[in-house]
Prior knowledge:
The protein is of the alpha+beta class. Among the domains are: 156 residues, Tumour Suppressor Smad4, CATH 2.60.200; 136 residues, P-loop containing nucleotide triphosphate hydrolases (Rossmann fold); 46 residues, no CATH class. Strands 4-3-14-13-10-11 form a six-stranded antiparallel β-sheet. A five-stranded parallel β-sheet has the order 16-17-20-15-21. Helix 1 packs across helix 2. It is elongated. The relative contact order is 0.11.
Amino acid sequence: MTARRHLLSGTIASNVKGITTVSVASDPLVPDEDDPRAVPAFVIAWSAEEPGRIGEVAFTGRLGEPIVLGRGEGGAESRLRFFRQRPNEIHATDPLEGRAISRRQLVFRAFAAGVEVERVGRCPLFVNGVAREKAPVTPGDTILLKGQLLLYCTVRARKLAAPRYFPKTAWAPFGEADAFGMLGESPASWTLRDQIAFAAKSTSHVLICGDSGTGKELAARAIHRLSARASRPVVARNAATFPSGLIDAELFGNAKNYPNPGMPERPGLVGQASGGSLFLDEIGELPHDLQAHLLRVLDEHGEYQRLGEATSRQSDLRLIGATNRDASSLKHDLLARLAVRIEMPSLDARREDIPLLVRLLLLEAAKKSPEIGGRFVGLVAGRPEARVDPLLLDSLIRRSYSTNVRELDSLLLRAMGASPSDVVVLTDEASATRAEARVPRAGGDLSLRASREPTAEEIRVRVRQESGNIRRAAAALGLPSRYVLYRLMRKYGIDVKNEGPE
């Protein structure tokens, strides 16, 4: 690392474990911590010889300025530099060292609508799976140097805001799951962590909204563990499983010998969770008349009554509800009591985290079933690393997901079953859906995602183009989830029923 200090023009503040801390912006390729703008950036999604670099990001330079990507140190020309970027932190890493990558391999030129990439070295270039010599690249595209390096083009601010609530003690090493099992280095993942920590510090009841497989239960348990109730139990139940005639017994319990002689006394979920947290998954599946049963115990005094008892009890619980429905589908007075809301980002909103998730899922599969998953894991520099074909990662990054991490895990399991060697390879199932990914494709979309929310007309047009599919429309508009789009549609008075296909 000492040999390349001169490249950073005196910006080095410290040198920690081979990573150089950068904190000023005199060089246009060194992120400016005072620049809040989102710009095109490239994230390492796979590296044949340096797998530990997954998640590192490089920023493009001034408009029209040629920037070279290549192996090793460069000369006087501007070189694309990679960083480990985290909230309020930026650490420069060593030059790329892939042996088949030329010292001058690619030339990038940034323009208003995206970036142009041109191959000047010997390693073949593929953009979105197609061999190219020169091509425009916009957020959502992938760049593959055959057998060496896979990059994902995204849009990212040069500085991520410092977390206000998520404690530094819960952070993990770069690219690893944090203390609560949450994985991701994307801006969306760090925003989510801070929202979870804020919810934990609040004393209000919480509603977590998100599509299937986005990690709502993981978020709920993180809220509990970060809260002042962490030493008390978290009681979890899927609300959709409550029998309609027995919800009071399930929630509030019953007195001894009630309703039948010999019946034991039961505290119910409310009693069990007193002093701690009650997590009700799929709370939106409860009919409104059953949601009403929760109202009184969620008020300030937490009053409830066990079946068969004449006197009221009190429970000091905190409710954390989760739903894959729009929040407005809940009974209005129950929704009013769930004052803190968290919207879980979909995989479509955090595609740069997919390679990290793939690695984690494969390593976990190897631990759970060594005979199945163990052959796809090897040691690199003393660290377990998953062996994944870059064509599979390319496909997984660019596809559209309906059940998010759950779907990703399922695809990987089937790919392992179909892989003939010790590398998880691309299957027909994964490649058949590569064209379904909905990502920003033009300069207008880039500026929209970076700096403002969509207008009412932009929403109407996109919803019509997607035939009323709110999840796909939200992804195409660059929004973190369909719930954000629902909120904007309510704001503008847009009814999806009236927005049919074009």
